[in-house]
Design goal:
252 residues; alpha+beta; two-stranded antiparallel sheet
Length: 252
């Protein structure tokens, strides 16, 4: 087990990933049925979550920040996913019969109703359970060092890994009395109780031109919609129109 942790730590260091944590799979046992670690791997024992910060300058490009973030996020999605795949291979190569599955940074996900996206396992909750941050007032992970600008990836595995957080720190979450993200949200999708209207946020902040045009052109069932969305919206095919709740955060 020590060799497994060492090899993954080296992998993360080589790929400029400064934050990761490990926790027991049971920490998310109360998630909705179908979206628990056990729904990915029945004998899941451990969760690993990692994060990489988007450069501060991306959020300070004024009117160009959405385009800059769109490009940065797509580059990071692919890089993080590649690291997750290699980390899963390390677990399976070193472990005795262990298996591991990545929880990718963005795609794929389940599409519920009209525009409600559900990750197979919540990366934000996984990250909080692993001790690398707290769920912030805008629904994103808030890190003591990087604020809300970490992009996350995760792994569910049958390997029994030791709980840890790197680097070690006391995560306290968003500072008390700060409500800038709620106040500056252009569609008021975040209230001061900490509830985020995810559907409203997604509809306003994301666009996939190819997907939108296909939806206008035909009548599709729910499974068809999810398939078409994954094919036409992944990576460079989607556009972020709003990152205001991160851009205005005084802790970015």
């Amino acid at each position: 087990m020590k060799k497994m942790i060492e090899e993954m730590t080296n992998l993360f260091a080589l790929n400029n990933i400064p934050v990761f944590g490990i926790t027991d799979a049971s920490s998310l046992k109360n998630e909705p049925f179908g979206y628990r670690p056990y729904d990915m791997i029945a004998l899941a024992e451990s969760l690993l979550c990692l994060g990489i910060p988007v450069p501060k300058g991306i959020f300070q490009c004024q009117k160009r920040s959405e385009w800059m973030y769109w490009r940065a996020a797509n580059i990071y999605y692919q890089n993080i996913d590649a690291v997750l795949m290699r980390a899963c291979s390390i677990i399976e190569e070193i472990g005795e019969g262990e298996v591991a599955v990545p929880i990718y940074t963005c795609f794929p996900y389940d599409l519920k109703g009209k525009g409600d996206f559900w990750a197979y396992v919540s990366l934000v909750k996984m990250a909080e359970a692993a001790g690398i941050g707290k769920v912030g007032k805008n629904g994103l992970l808030f890190s003591s060092k990087y604020g809300p600008k970490l992009l996350l990836g995760g792994i569910v595995t049958t390997a029994s890994l030791p709980a840890m957080a790197w680097p070690e720190k006391d995560e306290k979450g968003c500072p008390e009395g700060c409500y800038v993200c709620q106040e500056e949200c252009p569609i008021k999708a975040i209230d001061k109780s900490g509830k985020v209207d995810r559907v409203a946020c997604i509809k306003y902040s994301m666009r996939s031109p190819i997907f939108s045009n296909l939806m206008k052109a035909g009548n599709f069932g729910s499974e068809d919609v999810q398939m078409i969305n994954h094919v036409t919206a992944v990576d460079d095919h989607s556009m972020y129109r709003c990152i205001q709740c991160v851009s205005v955060c005084p802790y970015v």
